[in-house]
Structure formats: structure tokens, C-alpha cells
Amino acid sequence: MRKVTAGLFHSVDGVVSDPFKFQFDSFDEELGQGLATMINTVDTVVLGRVSYQEWAGYWPTAATDEDFARFINPVEKFVASRTLTAPLEWQNSQLMDAPLEEFVSRLKERDGGEIAVCGSISVVRQLLFAGLLDSLTLMTHPVIAGSGRHLFGEGDPLTRLVLQEQSRTSKGNVLTTYGLRGE
Questions:
Q1: Using the 8-state DSSP alphabet, how is residue 170 labeled?
Q2: Which fold has domain 4-180?
Q3: Closest CA to 26 of 178, 173, 179, 177
Q4: DSSP, res 59
């Protein structure tokens, strides 16, 4: 069965939205290498509507020498949305033909590499709490963002995680990868 992974940039105070506002001075070569390692085994991406619209407006015309552009543009992309209509314009992008959890469950059973949830905070949350996310990597930058959207909040269900991997970069970024703990 294929694995579903997610990686989010994260501030010390837990903000995961708009990382471009806080990561610019701490993004280092080791973090870039960590990201390259993460996407190396991915052949399918899952996006929510907001991330799709933001990224489809940027990545198709981004410099083709950027590693992420070379990855994200040709990769197979599935978009969870109740408001977008087909066909989607960004190459290799299509709308999910079923509710998110059902679609991802079927996707996990297909042959292929890893499935990565990119951006898409709501999608990460839904798949994590549904038990469909195999690993969550938080790339914590040494900064307090002060405001923005958090991944977790009051009212979330108790969810036990197990630390799978951790590392630190020269600029003080901490990468922690968690999986669901089977009970």
C-alpha cells in the first residue's frame, strides 16, 4: 500500500500558513536537501483548492531551474474541491471524483510511489484525523510568527503520534517527522 505524507513549514509558535513571511532568513541548504529527499519518492500530489489556486498561479511559470518547479509541474496532481470545475488548467491536474477520504483511500491502493499532500492545511488535518496520513513532517523555523493559521487547535481529537525521524539544520531549523501510533 502506498504511503501518504505531508510536510509543512512551521514557526515555533505553531503557525503553518504563509511561511514565506517567516522562513526567508532561515531557509538553508540542509532544509533544501531535506525537501529534495522528501519529494524524491513522490509521484502523486494531493492539493486543496486554495493551495491549488495559489500554486497554479505561480509554479507553471516559475524558473525551470528551481528543483521544486521541476518536481511539481509534471507530477500527477489531484485537487480536493467542491467549487472548482473541470478541466483544470495546470498540467497533470484533475479534480477528485469522490470525497477526499474515499478518494485518498483508493489512491493508496493503486500502484505507485508516495502520495504527498502539499500545502493544504485543511487536507492535512482531515487525512491525519481520518488515519490516512502515514507521516507528517514539521519543518520548524526558529521564529515566532505572531499570527497566522495553526495546524492544530482547541477541539481537535486526542491523537497519539510517534516520532519517526528528527534532524536540525545549521540555521536552527528542526525537522520532525511523526506517524500515527497504532493502539
A1: T
A2: Dihydrofolate Reductase, subunit A (3.40.430)
A3: 173
A4: G
As given in the structure block, the three cell numbers for residue 151 are: 495546524
pLDDT for res 66 = 79
DSSP-derived secondary structure for 124-144:
HHHHHHTT---EEEEEEES--
CA angle (60, 62, 67) in 5-degree steps: 100
> Three-state SS for 5?
strand
Q: Is 94 helix (H, G, I), strand (E, B) or coil?
A: strand
CA atoms within 13 Å, Cβ hemisphere of 87 = 4
pTM over 0.70: yes
Instruction: Say how far apart CA 22 and CA 61 lie, in whole Å.
Output: 24
pLDDT digits 0-9 by tens, 72-113: 999 999 999 999 998 999 999 999 999 999 999 999 999 999
Which amino acid belongs to residue 65? D
